[in-house]
UniProtKB/TrEMBL annotation, chain A:
Protein name per UniProt: AP complex subunit sigma
UniProt keyword annotation of Transport present: yes
Taxonomic superkingdom: Eukaryota
Record-annotated AP complex mu/sigma subunit domain positions: 1-143
PROSITE patterns linked to this entry: CLAT_ADAPTOR_S
Statement: the UniProt record of this protein carries the keyword Membrane: yes
Gene Ontology CC annotations of this record: endomembrane system; membrane coat
TrEMBL record, chain B:
Keyword Protein transport: yes
Species classification: Eukaryota, Viridiplantae, Streptophyta, Embryophyta, Tracheophyta
Subcellular location(s) of the protein: Cytoplasmic vesicle, Clathrin-coated vesicle membrane; Golgi apparatus
Protein name: AP-1 complex subunit gamma
GO cellular component, one term: AP-1 adaptor complex
Length: 165, 876
């Protein structure tokens, strides 16, 4: 099971926090601080895996990958395959890239609810829903369409937070 | 309504927060926003609820409290529109805890949305339920989710399957409801649905034994076929990653097969072929392919033994180890660690590659590899592996040396084939990484060295060389200084040369140089300097010609600010100066330290005294205290009034600590030296004193003295190579134990001669036995006294197996001749006589003194009597 997905930037600022077991917000930030300390002290040419036993209990592991200024971090237990999780992160990033056409940190900052929705189409309750980024993009596009077309249902001056704003 | 804040768009708020230069500014912006949102909440403002919650989620991510927004989530979820519901559900998943009461209120909305006509809204509800469902919600909503497993749209079926996992984890009783729907989902062609169905199936198998049995019987074959198709399928472009057909599906299939095959030979049989196919056909030049291979290896390792497959699997891991990708090497090492318990032989074959990984540039890989090597070492490969590791120690990173050193030491201690090898390897480690060696490791080395009497000379010479080259390694300096102090005479005289050694010419002054250098080096700490002082004191007696120089060196510490050093310096100075007569006895070689006792104490089964490292400067480190106390005891034993035969070691010690001339030296850290002194004393006594006599001592002491095994083995090992003469050669060391042992050997008869007459004395008398000594002197050698001991039995029973043993201090030499008989008749009806010859090296200065021990059998019961004889006539 995947325990959590975190995106932080190279300054340690959280950009996306998603835990699949409830963690109080203070704990979340402790965890992020710990992870950030570990990650920014890691050398370049080392593996992407870190033991996470101390924060998440026995046999939990953490995989991270850096994309430009961001660390993508997935925390998971022994029932997941580390190498496959690396591929999963690749799928996530590819999907973001397709949805935001050339994703950058700012896209994630300003559209965090969309990023959450994309993530929900890939991982649900700590389990992988979909590994094909084409399928995910399709699902996200359909949701976008819902946002626009059901607009009439909501009051006229509400903002969707989804587009343009 | 506050037009300003409610009017702020989400984007503007994020900009404002990002523009903040300090945390305080950011807090101010957030506070203002939160205030506005609270106001909107209390106004029950519908228009901006959606936007406000989005803002709150952002604020939440930054770590600010947002509990006041929880009800807003519920209101948004209850709203009719998709955008509201989407944000509402997002907020629900991020802001709410499954344990909160509020969550109960959402169940109804969820139920409605699960039945919504809009499948996207159904999707939102499933996603939220799958993330935060509580047990109550799971019970309430399970029927809806179960129904959705058959929904027409595959996207909903996928989500329903994963949502079911949450449900059965929360309420395992519900598992049986899902078994049949899953069985039909497993027949799906849609990759995404199949993937999620397999995950649900795996979790069902974990929570329910019946489900596992069911799937094992009904679905194993089908799943094997799906995997076979996936491996052989030529094309499925949308799921391809790097040219491999749907790797994630293959991984999930391998995982479910692992669960089904584990512990079941039939199911395992079914999957053998396909596993072999995956293992051989999968391309390993991409991460995705390796992920499949990795999963496949894990499955092969977990299912029932299938002969060749395991070898195939471990060979895959072996290939992984030489992969350029760090991640692949890392997982391979992890997996090998698990595999070692399943098929150690197969893993051994990759030893060389694993050893290479110890030298990897990636620290986490090095660490894993080292752990693995540690598991791989056994009696047969310990020598080459240790050599490799030690060679690598020279070039390894500083921060890796600690781990590496600890592992090497542990391997060497655990598996060394002989002492010479052990000492050699440890010296190498000390030279390379002495500063990383834990105290208990070099303490153990010292214990081993004292026990290897034939290697004393070799060891001290090797250490002398080592110190020259590795003077910056504290541990090598300490062990070296200790050994030079103990065995300095062997060093300069090249005694006990081994064939492998190069001759070494060291003068007495050279040896002292080494220690002087060590004590003066500014990086030496208190422990090292104290050890240096002890070594100097010992050398002052071993090298009389250097005595004056040593005294000067010792004197230099007289003004030391460290109390311990100052005190030692002053005391030792006075010993060298004023107590010439006792110095040699005082600085005798350490008695052999009992290995068993040390290792037990190290393992923690004995109370830890001084043996463990303690940086507290008031406590004397192990080696120092022992060297110090043993001579003290010798001294005390012989200069005191005759002690009662039955007095225990503890009493001697009390005397010592009470008011002896050197007692002041023990007063720093009084308890510590006292304890260790007791130990040493008991080490000495352990061969001698029967347990009963130690009644007054502590439990700790009893446990040592009752340890007959260790003392007996010590006797065995020591008595065989010993020369039969009582003359104590320097190489054999000279503890009282050894003197005792000498008594066992048969001795050549000594011609009787007439000398000056001395009155006979009753040397020993107990209720059952009396011993009389008759003395005679050999003409021409006033130092030598011939003693005829005669034993009389005062009881009415016959004593059989009668053995008399005696021990003398260093300045005396003792020959025991065979006794006239080993049976002593009762009622004084005859006696046993035995001749002794004592040579007093300090004739005229000291009188004779002797400890005796008499053992015999009375009605087949072992009896033992002991005593000390100090009433020898003067002038012997």
């Amino acid at each position: 099971m995947i325990r959590g997905v975190i995106i932080i930037n190279d300054q340690g600022k959280p950009r996306l926090i998603k835990f699949y077991d409830y963690q109080p917000i203070e704990k979340q930030h402790d965890i992020i601080r710990n992870i950030y300390t570990v990650l920014c002290n890691r050398a370049e040419n080392v593996s992407n895996f870190v033991q996470a036993d101390s924060t998440f209990g026995p046999d939990t592991r953490l995989v991270y990958k850096t994309f430009a200024t961001l660390y993508f971090i997935v925390i998971f237990d022994e029932s997941e395959n580390e190498l496959a999780i690396l591929d999963l992160m690749q799928v996530f990033v590819e999907t973001l890239d397709k949805c935001f056409s050339n994703v950058c940190e700012l896209d994630i900052v300003f559209n965090f609810s969309k990023v959450h929705t994309i993530l929900n189409e890939i991982i649900l309750g700590g389990q992988v829903v979909e590994m094909s980024s084409a399928e995910v993009v399709k699902a996200v596009d359909e949701i976008s369409w819902q946002e626009k077309n059901k607009f009439s249902h909501s009051s006229s001056n509400a903002t969707s937070g989804w587009q343009r704003r | 309504m506050n037009p300003f804040s409610s009017g702020t768009r989400l984007r503007d708020m994020i900009r404002a927060i990002r523009a903040c230069k300090t945390a305080a500014e950011e807090r101010a912006v957030v506070r203002k926003e939160c205030a506005a949102i609270r106001a909107a909440v209390s106004d029950n403002d519908n228009d901006y609820r959606h936007r406000n919650l989005a803002k709150l989620m952002f604020i939440h991510m930054l770590g600010y409290p947002t509990h006041f927004g929880q009800m807003e989530c519920l209101k948004l979820i209850a709203a009719p529109g998709f955008p509201e519901k989407r944000i509402g559900y997002l907020g629900l998943m991020l802001l709410l805890d499954e344990r909160q009461e509020v969550l109960m209120l959402v169940t109804n909305s969820l139920k409605q949305d699960l039945n919504h006509t809009n499948q996207y809204i159904v999707g939102l509800a499933l996603c939220a339920l799958g993330n935060i469902s509580s047990a109550e919600m799971a019970r309430d909503l399970a029927p809806e989710v179960e129904r959705l497993l058959q929904f027409r749209d595959p996207n909903v079926r996928k989500k329903a399957a994963l949502c079911s996992i949450r449900i059965i984890k929360k309420v395992p009783d519900l598992a049986e409801n899902f078994v049949n729907p899953v069985a039909s989902l497993l027949k799906e062609k849609h990759h995404g649905v199949l993937l999620t169905a397999i995950q649900l199936c795996a979790d069902l198998c974990i929570v329910s034994e019946e489900a596992l049995e069911y799937f094992r019987k009904k679905c194993t074959e089908g799943l094997v076929k799906v995997l076979k198709d996936a491996v052989n399928s030529p094309y499925a472009p949308e799921y391809d990653i790097a040219g491999i057909a749907d790797p994630f599906l293959q991984i999930r299939l391998l995982r479910i097969l692992r669960i089904l095959g584990h512990g079941d030979a039939d199911a395992s049989d079914l999957m053998n072929d396909v596993l072999a196919q995956v293992a051989t056909k999968t391309e390993s030049n991409k991460n995705a392919g390796n992920a499949i291979l990795y999963e496949c290896v894990e499955t092969i390792m977990s299912i029932e033994d299938s002969g060749g497959l395991r070898v195939l699997a471990i060979n895959i891991l072996g290939r992984f180890l030489s992969n350029r990708d760090n991640n692949i090497r890392y997982v391979a090492l992890n997996m090998l660690m698990k595999a070692i318990s399943i098929d150690g032989q197969a893993v051994q074959r990759h030893r060389a590659t694993i050893l290479e990984c110890v030298k990897d540039s990636d620290a986490s890989i090095r660490k894993r590899a080292l752990e693995l090597v540690y598991l791989l070492v056994n009696e047969t490969n310990v020598e080459p592996l240790t050599k490799e590791l030690i060679d690598y120690l020279e070039v390894s990173d500083q921060d890796f040396k600690g781990d590496l050193t600890a592992n090497i030491c542990s391997i060497v201690e655990r598996l060394s084939p002989d002492k010479l090898w052990y000492i050699d390897q440890m010296l190498k480690v000390l030279c390379e990484a002495g500063n990383y060696v834990k105290d208990d490791v070099w303490h153990a080395l010292v214990v081993v060295i004292t026990n290897a009497s034939n290697l004393h000379g070799y060891t001290v010479r090797s250490l002398y060389r080592a110190i020259q080259t590795s003077v910056d390694q504290e541990a090598v300096v300490r062990v070296g200084v200790w050994c030079i102090g103990e065995y300095g005479d062997l060093l300069v005289n090249n005694i006990g040369m081994l064939d492998i050694e190069e001759p070494l010419s060291v003068t007495e002054n050279d040896a002292v140089d080494v220690i002087e250098l060590a004590i003066k080096r500014h990086t030496s700490d208190l422990t090292t300097r104290s050890m240096c002082l002890i070594a100097l004191l010992k050398l002052s007696s071993r090298f009389p010609s250097c005595s004056q120089r040593i005294k000067e060196i010792v004197n230099q510490s007289k003004g030391s600010l460290l109390l311990e050093l100052q005190q030692r310096s002053i005391e030792f100075n006075s010993i060298i100066d004023k107590h010439q007569n006792i110095r040699s006895a005082l600085v005798e070689r350490m008695p052999v330290l009992d290995e068993a006792t040390y290792s037990r104490r190290r393992d923690g089964s004995l109370p830890v005294n001084v043996s463990t490292s303690d940086k507290n400067s008031l406590q004397n480190p192990n080696g120092v205290t022992k060297t110090f106390n043993a001579p003290l005891l010798d001294l005390l034993d012989l200069s005191d009034e005759p002690a009662p035969p039955n007095s225990s070691g503890g009493d001697f010690l009390q005397d010592l600590l009470g008011g002896d001339i050197l007692s002041s030296s023990s007063h720093t850290g009084t308890t510590q030296p006292q304890k260790s002194g007791t130990d040493v004393l008991l080490d000495l006594l352990s061969t001698g004193s029967p347990p009963a006599q130690n009644g007054s001592s502590t439990a700790d002491i009893l446990s040592i003295s009752q340890d007959n095994n260790s003392s007996v083995s010590a006797l065995d090992s020591l008595s065989s190579p010993m020369p039969q003469s009582v003359h104590i050669a320097p190489t054999t060391g000279g503890s009282p134990i050894m003197d005792l042992l000498d008594g066992f050997g048969p001795n050549p008869p000594v011609p009787k001669d007439n000398g000056p007459a001395y009155p006979p004395v009753v040397a020993f008398e107990s209720n059952s036995l009396s011993l009389t000594f008759n003395f005679s002197k050999q003409s021409g050698s006033p130092q030598t006294t011939n003693i005829e001991a005669s034993f009389t039995n005062k009881s009415s029973d016959v004593y059989t197996d009668f053995i008399f043993q005696a021990a003398v201090p260093k300045f005396l030499q003792l020959h025991l001749e065979p006794a006239s008989s080993n049976t002593l008749p009762g009622n004084g009806n005859g006696s046993i006589t035995q001749k002794l010859r004592v040579t007093n090296n300090q004739h005229g200065k000291k009188s004779l003194v002797m400890r005796i021990r008499i053992s015999y059998k009375l009605n087949n019961k072992d009896m033992l009597e002991e005593g000390q004889i100090s009433n020898f006539p003067r002038g012997l």
